[in-house]
């Protein structure tokens, strides 16, 4: 997996940090990045509200719910539980790139754009529905979770402990820049 | 009086006190009782006479004053220190008029710590080697070694003598703990937040009767962006003294 770009949005959806770590992405203007940040912020907020109403889901849990899950499984080949988007938009997977979002407790969002999922030729048919593992496809997601943790750590060390940083403003710390490059390149 | 209207002292455990509580040592101010809790009675005066140390806050039986001064201090979280230092820098920056003023203020804050820390390190050392440094090189080695270690948990990286100027020495730290997470923006020029550490060194040297001025300069090297040089400039009179004593 190759990380192309890394963005950080503040809790209002403003872009406070953007770093094109590895070249390979069609270059966007800084204005485009601001729009992207705002859009992601909005979509993330709406996505966190899309979920079945708890009482209804409970009523016809025997009929519709299993039916829905089954159609989902057949259509996407992925087993998902109904609450999987409880914390908003987490990934966008396309043929050209993958985009992952991680939101911290304070509303800060880390976004990374990576290379797409590797093409897996001998994908095992999912005989066992009980195993939640998505196999090869899950691997990339798991490694981004680790990356996000590291990024969060760097952010809280080199940005939050910097007396010259004012909250919710663009990050200019050169040390943070350096560490992010070390981590993602 | 309802409990909500009382503003308690900042010690959180005070709020758990009630009228019937008395301190473990028989001493201490209880905000519920008021001044009468500090009154001297036969009982309390007895404690005063027979005990060498008396804790004056009712909950301070594990406070810093009750610990053995000769024992090693438990380590302090770097994170909480960094946040505190971050606020210190912010606060001084708001009060200062310029970059030089800011460095001077940080230096002054460190100075007081240096004066006290020299005392503390020497007290802790006294048991093993009762020795006081009287030569310039010896005191520098002490600062570079034992003193640095007791503050930052490691010795400084290098100790050098200036080649051009007679009375200048340099202590070099590759990763200064104080400014580990701080990156100074370009419009602040060559400000170094390690001025605080420089103040600590200056305070320690001055109280050891080696008057000097110490400044911090950031001299990045490849792979070591935070490398800091502490330039120590001793007073001229010191050399006269040393010449009289040892030559």
From TrEMBL, chain A:
- The keyword Transport appears for this protein: yes
A GO BP entry is: endoplasmic reticulum to Golgi vesicle-mediated transport
Query: Which is one Gene Ontology cellular component term of this protein?
Result: Golgi apparatus
Q: Reply yes or no: does the keyword Endoplasmic reticulum apply.
A: yes
| Record key words, sorted | Endoplasmic reticulum, ER-Golgi transport, Golgi apparatus, Transport
Q: Where in the cell is it found?
A: Endoplasmic reticulum; Golgi apparatus, cis-Golgi network; Golgi apparatus
Q: Which Pfam families match?
A: Sybindin
Describe the protein's quaternary organization and the partners it interacts with.
Answer: Part of the multisubunit transport protein particle (TRAPP) complex.
Similarity field: Belongs to the TRAPP small subunits family. TRAPPC4 subfamily.
Question: What's the protein here called?
Answer: Trafficking protein particle complex subunit
| Organism in which the protein naturally occurs | Pichia sorbitophila (strain ATCC MYA-4447 / BCRC 22081 / CBS 7064 / NBRC 10061 / NRRL Y-12695) (Hybrid yeast)
TrEMBL record, chain B:
Task: Please give the SUPFAM superfamilies that the UniProt record associates with this protein.
Answer: Ligand-binding domain in the NO signalling and Golgi transport
Where found?
A: Endoplasmic reticulum; Golgi apparatus, cis-Golgi network
GO terms for cellular component: endoplasmic reticulum; TRAPPI protein complex; TRAPPII protein complex; TRAPPIII protein complex
- CDD domains the UniProt entry points to: TRAPPC5_Trs31
What are its GO biological-process terms? endoplasmic reticulum to Golgi vesicle-mediated transport
Question: Which family does the entry's similarity section mention?
Answer: Belongs to the TRAPP small subunits family. BET3 subfamily.
Q: What is the stated purpose of this protein?
A: Plays a key role in the late stages of endoplasmic reticulum to Golgi traffic.
**Protein's UniProt name:** Trafficking protein particle complex subunit
Source taxonomy lineage? Answer: Eukaryota, Fungi, Dikarya, Ascomycota, Saccharomycotina
The gene name on file is: Piso0_001053
